[in-house]
Every structure is written in C-alpha cells, then in structure tokens.
Amino acid sequence: MRTDELLQLDIKLLVAFHTIIEEGSVSRAAERLGVTQPALSKSLQKLRAVFNDALFSRQAYGLSPTARASELHLQIEPILHSLSSLTSPPQLDLSELTRHFCLHIHESVLASFIEPLLSEIYAEAPNVKLSIANWGNQSFSELGLSTVDLGIGMINGTPNSIRSKLIGHIEGCILISKAHPLFQQEAMCIEDLVNYPLATHHIQRQSMSPSITLQKLQQQGFDITPNLETESLLAAMKAIKNGMTLITGYATANLMMSFMAESGKADDIRLLPLPDDIVKLDPYDNQHPVQMCWHERNNNELAHKWLREKIANHMKNSPWMINKKIKHL
Fold first, then answer.
1. Residue-wise pLDDT tens digits, 24-69
2. What is the CATH number of the domain that holds 186?
3. Residue 11 maps to a domain
C-alpha cells in the first residue's frame, strides 16, 4: 500500500472493521461503538474502497467476512492491540528496574538521609545502580546534558529548564576540637572566625545559598576567607584536629561527632552555634533552603519520580531538616 493510500486509512476505520467482524452486524457494531448505523455503513464503504474488496457478504444470520477480510482481521487485531497499549498508563516494575541514576548532592545534606535511603531503595529495586558525587558549579549544566539525573543542595535559583522542589531548610554550625584556643568557650563571634584559622565544608559553590551569606558579610566589612575549603570529610576532620574552626551543616557535624565517639574521643570535639552577629546578617537566618533539582525532560518518568519521592520523604523525616517557612532575601 502506497503512502497516499495509507492516508485514507485512519484508526477509526480499523476499529470499525474490527468491531463489524466481531459483531457480524453493522447495527450491533454501531451500537457498540456509539455511532449511528448510517455512519458506520459509510465507514464500511471506505474500507471496501481502500482494500478493493467487498469484505463482507450478507447471510441469513448476519454478515460473513470474505477471505480477504479474514486475512485482514488477523493482521489488524495485533495492530489495534499495540495502539491500545500506547494509551495505557505506563507501569513501573521495581523488581525489574535496572536504571542507573547519577546524583549530585551537597554532602551536608547527603549525611542527613543517605543511610535509610539506601536500605529502602535496594530493598524495593535491587538492580538499581547509583552514582553519587558532590554538587558543584557545573552540576546545572550536567543536569541539562542528562549526565546527571538529580541534584540536591542549598541551591540559590535554578535555570529555566530545571525543575525544583523545596524539601526543607538546614542550619549551619561550628565544630572545634581541643586543639582550638577557644575550645572552652560556649559561643563565638565574627571576630573569632576572622582571627583564627578557618575551614569550610561545601559552602563556596557559586550556586549555593551560603556563598551569598559570605558575600553579605564581606559587604559589612567582615572578610571571612577560609584558610581551607574542602569537599572531603577526612580533610575537614583533620583540620578540626589541628585546631581550625570548621563551618558546616548540622548533619555533617553530627556525623563527624559520631566518628569521634566511636573512637572514644567524643569529648575532644565540640559543636557550637554560628555567631549571633553572623545569623543577624544572614539573609536566610541560618536556615538555608534545600532544593531538589532535575531537568524537565525527566519530570514524568516513573522511575525518576519514584526516586525523587523516596529521597524527599527521607529528607523531610531527617532530624536535621527544618520544614518551616523562613524569610528569604
């Protein structure tokens, strides 16, 4: 059949043919399809012209298909079944899911939910593969290129093609060890951060909200330039042990303190709140928004939605995630 002939044959004609041959009657087929008998008779005339065959002959008991019609029925039935499956809701079988997800996640956020998340994901979808890296300045570009599936962090604004969901808010804090001169103090001020060696864990990214806080402080004359910026938990731990002040999130701080407790050195490290004068200058009131980001092309994909929902639920249930609304810039 040529292309111009195919244009004469739409889905409605195939459905009409299929129903007539099943019912053996134009009137019964019309009733089943919810159309008038003259309208269905007109469709039958078009079918006869397209296939150049009478298709049906009248018998005492109804319509009898010709040999050509019987052949067509065997060919058309699977076609209609395939077309019907196109409109059926897609199904997700987690037991058979072999998807490989690449995630970029701010480590201060990751520490708050990764353990229970992994347990649940691999219990439901044992063949899923995950690659997890730190959120960085190129992560938005990689979301656009589909080399990254999902990004999570204290993100400030997203490109137009990127969808986002506010999960909650996370607070910053300070960690110091016995090697720090101010270990016995109950609190610090901005001057303490300026006057003593400082380390930061994941706050210098251009797209991260804590970087805005540092800019605000610099505008007020406080040049809090870290002596060490690191993405490594090990490097951050070593910095603390060597007397540096570490600024990080509560989830990461709690993780580091648990490491120290396991080694019998829980009393060698202290967690302090950020200085009040920093919080007052912080446009986020030290409650930084945690966003989940993904490219809009993945918005309706079932496996992607499943993973987003799993992560969001675990993050919201984390003791380190604040779910109340705050004032922004």
1. 999 999 999 999 999 999 999 999 988 899 999 988 778 899 999 9
2. 3.40.190.10
3. yes
